[in-house]
Design goal:
It contains 18 helices and no strands. With 482 residues, it is an all-alpha fold. It folds into two domains: 160 residues, no CATH class; 292 residues, no CATH class. It starts with 5 loop residues before the first helix and ends in a 12-residue tail after the last helix.
């Protein structure tokens, strides 16, 4: 089921009514949420429910046993089992064909042809999200930072919680489990704020991202015959699309959870206002970047701290190559992560000089402007890699961007795309960034609205009409493929 579907418009109110009618019966509430979550996920492919249940069973019992065991050797073995099971699921369903294909290509470089079978399987939606969520649970128990829950119902609900099941935020048990285990009471103000956040997320996804997708798909699919100006436009529209699509999902997920009385972590914090790549990753997909920081970057940096700055570079490269690979089995994602690591390493190397320059306070506004501009230009170019089908296609796209032909009329003649819709995209995008700028210190962009009720209600009507105008209920979120 998609958040931007007609089905969800009926599903959510029904869940809301039944859920709060069970107020005062915590087990019944959690059992209902679990059933609703399995139903929500099962509408994609009920067969993959077995993977979620299997992962939940394994990590529930491993978590209990790690906590009870006194032998450090056995505790390590249990943790290794959890890691192997969860990463094993990812390798089989997400990376097997990529690794096999890369292995075959490597041997072909030396003139050796291999006939190795690949798997004809569908990638389960959200597998990267819920496996990382359960992994963090067992790791935190092993480190002594978390006590396991004794309730299988509560743990299974934590793993399958439908608002954030398929595309995050990747929640930590320390935040989400206590809320699931505690009795919840209806909070009108929280629910009202949650509805605002849902509306804002739907506006970003449906009115902006889905319209961008029409142009982006056409441009990237036909890049060889399009002008340089169109390819620059395609890159810009994808930068807008990927942000509005994923942050829009996160807003709907967080807002949905708020109306159920449960707070999820913030996943985006105006990343396109970042002044450097380090700052951007503190604001972009926060739940994933903090996961990799806590479980990959920090352990590596601490283990090799005797190497000084080299430890930071090593940790940065390993972390961001893995972040790239997390997105999928494609060399484009690995190169994407590698380039991010280069940019971040350069910022680590120049951090003292930049800090010293800022203290002088000379040309500070100019410095901030160009820092932002270079950050966004870098993001623009690496997003083209992210969107491309393969490395060859990416290089062709870059090459074609610098064609002398700047005619864009072919978009509206041969491909029947609407110039009016293109104008609507940029109009809506300008509105979005204005709201994000004035609410950049808030949890979401509709958190602080005018106190004058007619203005507030007029905004709600405008956003609702924009969503209804472009709602088709068929365009999946980009991050569902990860």
């Amino acid at each position: 089921m998609l958040f931007n579907s007609i089905e969800y418009l009926f599903f959510l109110p029904l869940v809301f009514i039944i859920y709060w009618s069970l107020k005062g019966h915590l087990k019944s509430q959690n059992l209902f949420v679990l059933a609703a979550s399995y139903f929500f996920y099962g509408l994609w492919d009920y067969r993959f429910l077995s993977l979620i249940i299997f992962s939940s069973v394994v990590d529930y019992f491993i978590g209990l046993n790690i906590h009870q065991q006194k032998s450090d050797k056995i505790r390590k073995a249990l943790l290794a089992t959890s890691i192997c099971v969860n990463i094993g699921l990812l390798i089989v369903f997400k990376y097997y064909n990529f690794f096999i294909g890369s292995f075959v290509d490597l041997f072909q470089l030396f003139g050796v042809s291999l006939n190795v079978a690949t798997l004809n399987i569908i990638l389960p939606v959200g597998i990267s999200f819920y496996t990382f969520q359960t992994l963090s649970y067992t790791i935190d128990i092993y480190k002594g930072q978390l006590k396991p829950t004794k309730s299988a119902l509560n743990f299974f609900t934590f793993v399958a919680y439908f608002p954030q099941l398929v595309a995050g935020p990747i929640e930590r048990a320390a935040n989400l489990l206590p809320q699931i285990e505690k009795a919840r009471s209806f909070d009108y103000d929280k629910a009202k704020d949650g509805m605002r956040q849902i509306l804002w997320g739907m506006f970003k996804k449906v009115a902006i991202a889905d319209n961008c997708a029409i142009y982006v798909d056409s441009i990237f699919s036909n890049q060889a015959e399009l002008s340089g100006a169109i390819l620059w436009l395609g890159g810009l529209l994808f930068v807008i699309q990927v942000y509005c699509d994923f942050s829009g999902y996160s807003d709907v997920a967080i807002g949905t959870s708020r109306i159920l009385g449960i707070n999820l972590m913030q996943n985006f914090s105006t990343p396109y206002f970042a002044l450097n790549t380090t700052d951007l990753w503190r604001r972009w997909h926060i739940s994933m970047s903090t996961w990799f920081r806590d479980y990959i970057f920090n352990p590596i940096a601490l283990r090799y701290r005797r190497l000084g700055a080299k430890a930071l570079y090593l940790a940065t490269f390993l972390t961001f190559v893995l972040i790239g690979l997390w997105h999928g089995g494609n060399w484009t994602f690995i190169v994407f992560g590698f380039l991010q690591a280069i940019a971040l390493s350069l910022e680590i190397a120049t951090s003292k000089r930049r800090k010293k320059f800022r203290k002088k306070k000379r040309f500070l506004k100019t410095y901030y402007f160009f820092s932002w501009l270079f950050t966004m230009l870098f993001w623009f170019f690496v997003c083209i890699i992210f969107r491309s089908k393969n490395i060859t296609s990416c290089f062709e796209y870059y090459q074609n961007m610098f064609k002398n032909n700047h005619d864009i009329s072919i978009l509206f003649t041969k491909y029947n795309l609407s110039v009016e819709i293109l104008g609507v995209i940029f109009f809506f995008t300008a509105i979005m960034f204005c709201f994000e700028w004035f609410n950049k210190d808030k949890t979401h962009s509709l958190a602080n609205l005018p106190k004058i009720k007619p203005l507030r209600y007029a905004l709600y009507v405008f956003l609702s009409l924009a969503v209804l105008q472009f709602l088709n209920g068929t365009t999946a979120f980009i991050y569902f493929q990860f």
